[in-house]
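Submission sheet (multi-component)
Chains listed below:
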Amino acid sequence: MRMIRALVPGLLLWLLVGLVPSAQAQTPGQDPAGQALLEALDTRSYADKGEAIAALVASGDERTRRWLEALLAGKLQRQEDTGRFIVVLENRGRHWPVVDALSFEAAGEMSRRELDRIGINNALRGQLQSTLAVLDLRVDDVGARREAARELLGNIEAAMLPPLQALVADEADGEVKRLLAQAIAIHRLEQGDAAAVEGLAGSLNPEARAALSAAARSDDAALAEAASGALADIEQKLKLNRGVETLYFGLSLGSVLVLAAIGLAITFGVMGVINMAHGELMMLGAYTTWGMQQLLPGQPGLALILAIPAGFLVAALAGIAIERSVIQFLKGRPLETLLATFGVSLILQQLVRTLISPLNRTVVSPEWMSGSLMINEGLSLTLNRLFVLGFALLVFAGLMLVMRRTRLGLEVRAVTQNRAMARSMGIRATRVDILTFALGSGVAGLAGVALSQLTNVGPNLGQNYIIDSFMVVVFGGVGNLWGTLVAGLSLGVINQVLEPWAGAVLAKILVLVFIILFIQKRPRGLFPQKGRAAEG
Amino acid sequence: MLASRSWLSRPLHERSTRLFLGVLIAALAVVSLLNLALPAGHPLHVSTYTVTLLGKYLCYALLAVAVDLVWGYLGILSLGHGAFFALGGYAMGMYLMRQIGDRGVYGDPVLPDFMVFLDWQSLPWYWHGFDMAWFALLTVLLAPGLLALVFGFLAFRSRVTGVYLSIITQALTFALMLAFFRNEMGFGGNNGLTDFKELLGFDLTADATRLWLFLATGMALALGYVLCRAIVASKLGRVCVATRDAEARTRFLGYRVERFQLFVFVVSAMLAGVAGALYVPQVGIINPGEFSPIFSIEIVLWVALGGRGTLYGAVIGALLVNYAKTVFTGVMPEAWLFALGGLFVLVTVLLPKGIAGLLAYRRPRRADPDPSTTPGEASA
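Outcome: structure written.
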């Protein structure tokens, strides 16, 4: 890849500029053209070196890029005795491995004493960097071109303008074109051209903003006014961006809360059971993801996808075990259930500590989940959070479907509303209890799978979420899935809105206090159950 | 006046209270005797370390009594009593910090070490007054009491009960834990308050001080027990039990349920605060860990194991669980959480009435004397 990137600009230049010297890679000593180009670089005057670099680019030699890179890194050197140009591969120690600068064939090791470096100064460094960027602009790969164009923002020399403008005209990709136009506009603005402000209006690049704010302080009144106008516009846009970002982080946090709380909402709302081990069921889901990845090394994506049903199953089975062994004996005693399930949670935590490790395990994110979605220069959304948000909504929709459209959902709702009546209508309430608990626990497992992509997987994973998820359920109103969704997302957003203003810990405290006060006002949450079912 | 004396002293005529006080005082006497009278090498000698450990257990026992008062007799499962305990502890800790004076590492006559470390120039306003013992002791009662008053007023007025109340008390202590972890709060952050030197002029490391602290804790437990007994045996206590069993019905009978709940809740919080205040000089440190929700749930387990709604059961439970904890964490630390978790499950499923329930089962049941028929009550 790197080879191609290095070769292509030379070829393109060769076609574009039309200078056709017979400068192909040749054996050392048989390449007078290349030798001459490099000779020109070895001069005391930095101005001459600058011209030599320009000549190098103009020559269209395909080795230009490698030479320039070596020069920039200080690795283009000359053997004192023979006058042979070489490129140092690694300049550590006394003897450096080198390659011939013309043929790029290995030339053994040379002592640092016998070598002369071709020095550069800061001005040349800038010229080299922008020259390399222009070279990069001629590659075929659009991504690389964008990268190169971004590199040019605020780094343009006057000498580069003509070739750049030619490039802008030829450029096919809109994004590259826009970036180049901005880079040129920044340059013009720095030269005091008020008309360039227009080209930067609404741009979110830090470089554009820096240039504009510099211009806004200039003595030229017209320029300063135009620049500060554009700047104010940009600030406005940035504010909006930050708002969107906060909202996104809030929704992301909220989606985690929803995932954690929604299983709880089912068991709590439907069965009146306080499952303090809910967090540990999430932990089991997260560990299932980790286990899957251990089973399928090298395929984190497949493992993650398989972990979704596996995590659900593991947590659901654990849930059934808890229901059969503990909860069924505590019918109608919610406070005792709370204590017993807390005991279960301690046991599960310690079990994981003893069997696996007390240390955190890393779960790898598959490639398609890492990285981020770039909306504009000021705003990019991390993909894993986006996936989790989508996953949370999917799980929610799935649960809604189960509750509204299936036989199980119907029976669950019937048992919730009036257990005795439902039983006399022939619904096997015990079976419904088991299935409900399995469903709630399974959803906790799903939450754990999702969480494994966002945080460390460790024995304390569940504990960190249990209080928050109870808050969500209580805030939303018990027995109401919509309430859980609204409560989870809004608590997430509230938390994120408060955070920059109050700090993470204080924001959390404020949210807790807010909920405590809210409960006083509306003891049954945002969406209270109505009718007879409400007086449990 | 006469009525109030009979109200407070009535428990002293109960058989169970006399038994409890007798056992407690005997135990205190025996431990002191074994500590003082026997030489250090003697097999029956109780070392000062053990005395302090027992003192710690007694603090927990008082805390458990406070929790049992609200849970056993009022039906309020507070998962946040650790917060009141810790607040009392912090009040005491602040007093002890001020007592250090210029003997701290940095030798600042006024500022505690951690403030010097954080480069604070002056004492925050809420640290003033803690150089006076009476003020600190008042705060030990008032800080948890006020918090319970405000929190309880809001919660009971809007009839937040049952599971909801449990969850928001848990949120309360969780929020306080997060707050106290912050250095900016001025309570020593993560490290809390420690490195105490003396209490009321007595050296905290001296054996005699340790024994006195142990005895004081025992006395506090005795007084707290009698107070709680007096409350639950009074007419007010009867209303509490009625509230526990049928809140709506009690309300319809014309009782302002929330006032009873609030009163008992505040008393319980203050008792927890006292327990915390006695705990800190014996353990030598108070940090935000005491606010952690797990600690609060553990307290509830002590009560559940001992048997709720008996008071003495809470004491038994606290002593047993904490003794087991000391043994387990010393011998096989990994097994402790298994044991604790298993205890939670076993007690709730198999022993809903706790150890006290077992004791009552072995004894032929006798009806308790009904307090509402005694003459003193009728005139109240």
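Remark: The longest strand of chain B covers residues 193-194.
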